[in-house]
From TrEMBL:
Pfam families: FYVE, PH. Signal peptide: none annotated. It comes from Maylandia zebra. GO terms for cellular component: early endosome. Residues 219-249 are annotated as: Disordered. Residues 35-131 form the PH domain. Residues 152-213 form the FYVE-type domain. This is Pleckstrin homology and FYVE domain containing 1.
C-alpha cells in the first residue's frame, strides 16, 4: 500500500497542505520519499508560560509551529531533523501531565500530550521514524544536545550566588550552558556554545564561564588569554532572552491523526496504531 500510486498522491497532497498552512513564512516541506506520519497539538513549556503548538511528524523531520487558526493557519515554523533529536520520557508534575523532553543541538524543551496514550504514541512514532532513518541513510546522530532550561517558577532566587532574590529590577536569566536560573550579576559573561550556534555568543553564568575557559586552557596547553574586548563590548543577548511570549489563550486539544502504515490510510485513531514497517529513506 505504501508504494501504491494512490497513496503517493494522497501523501503528497497531505505534505503540501502542511506546507501551505504555514503560508509564505514557512519553508518548503515537499521532498521525494518524505511521508507524513502524524500530526496533533501538544503543550510546550516556555520560559514564562505554557503554549499550545501544532506538531507534524514526517519520516525524516519533526515540524512544529504556533497556532493562528486551528487546522488552517500556523506560524513560526521550526524544522528539526530526526537525527538531531533525543527524547526522554518524564514523570507527571503537579502542573505538567503526560510530558516528555525533546532535546536538540540548539534547544531542548518540555512538551505534554492530552493523555498518556497520545504521549506514548508520539514517543514511539518519533523513535521508530528516527531508527528507520538511521538505518536507511548515512546520517549520524547528534552527540551534543542543549540543556533544558529550568522553568522560571522553579526558583525565587539566583541559583549561583544564592542571595539575589528575583522580582522587580532583579530579572531571571537562563544560563544557556547549564540551564540554571541566575541573576544579572552572575550572568554577565558571554561565550560561544558550538552545538547551539557556531559564532553567536550566548549568556552564560560565571560558573560555566570559568569552566569553559579552563577547558580551553587545557585544550591549547597554554593560557586561555584575555580578550581585548571589554565586557560591555562582549555583550550579545541570546535569542532565548529576547524571545517574545506569544499572546492568546491556550486552545483546546484536537485528537492526533496518524498514518496507518499497514494499510496506507490516514485517519484519526481512537486506539493508536504504533508504527510498523516504516519505509527507510
Amino acid at each position: 500500500m505504501m508504494d501504491h500510486p494512490t497513496f503517493e498522491r494522497e501523501n503528497q497532497e497531505r505534505v503540501q497542505a502542511v506546507e501551505s498552512s504555514f503560508h509564505q513564512a514557512g519553508k518548503p516541506l515537499s521532498k521525494p520519499g518524505r511521508i507524513l506520519i502524524g500530526e496533533g497539538t501538544v503543550f510546550k513549556q516556555g520560559r514564562k508560560k505554557i503554549q499550545q503548538k501544532i506538531l507534524f511528524l514526517f519520516t525524516d523531520i519533526l515540524v512544529y509551529g504556533s497556532i493562528v487558526v486551528p487546522d488552517r493557519w500556523y506560524k513560526k515554523q521550526k524544522i528539526i531533523p530526526l537525527e538531531d533529536i533525543e527524547l526522554e520520557d518524564l514523570e507527571d508534575s503537579d502542573i505538567f501531565k503526560h510530558q516528555w523532553l525533546i532535546r536538540t543541538q540548539s534547544k531542548s524543551f518540555f512538551v505534554s500530550a492530552p493523555s498518556y496514550e497520545e504521549k506514548k504514541a508520539w514517543i514511539e512514532h518519533i523513535n521508530e521514524c528516527r531508527s528507520s532513518l538511521m538505518q536507511g541513510t548515512s546520517c549520524k546522530p547528534s552527540k551534543k544536545f542543549a540543556v533544558s532550561s529550568i522553568p522560571d517558577e522553579a526558583a525565587c532566587k539566583c541559583m549561583r550566588c544564592l542571595s539575589t532574590k528575583f522580582g522587580g529590577a532583579n530579572r531571571r536569566h537562563h544560563c544557556r550552558n547549564c540551564g540554571f536560573l541566575v541573576c544579572n550579576s552572575c550572568s554577565k559573561q558571554r561565550a560561544v556554545i558550538d552545538h547551539i550556534h557556531p559564532t553567536k555568543k550566548l549568556r552564560i553564568c560565571s560558573f560555566c564561564y570559568k569552566n569553559i575557559n579552563e577547558e580551553k586552557f587545557r585544550d591549547r596547553g597554554d593560557s586561555a588569554g584575555k580578550s581585548s574586548k571589554s565586557e560591555e563590548e562582549d555583550f550579545c543577548p541570546s535569542g532565548e532572552e529576547n524571545e517574545k511570549v506569544e499572546e492568546g489563550e491556550i486552545g483546546i486539544y484536537s485528537p492526533s491523526n496518524w498514518l496507518d502504515t499497514k494499510n496506507g490510510t490516514w485517519e484519526r485513531l481512537s486506539i493508536y496504531d504504533y508504527p510498523k514497517s516504516i519505509p527507510s529513506q
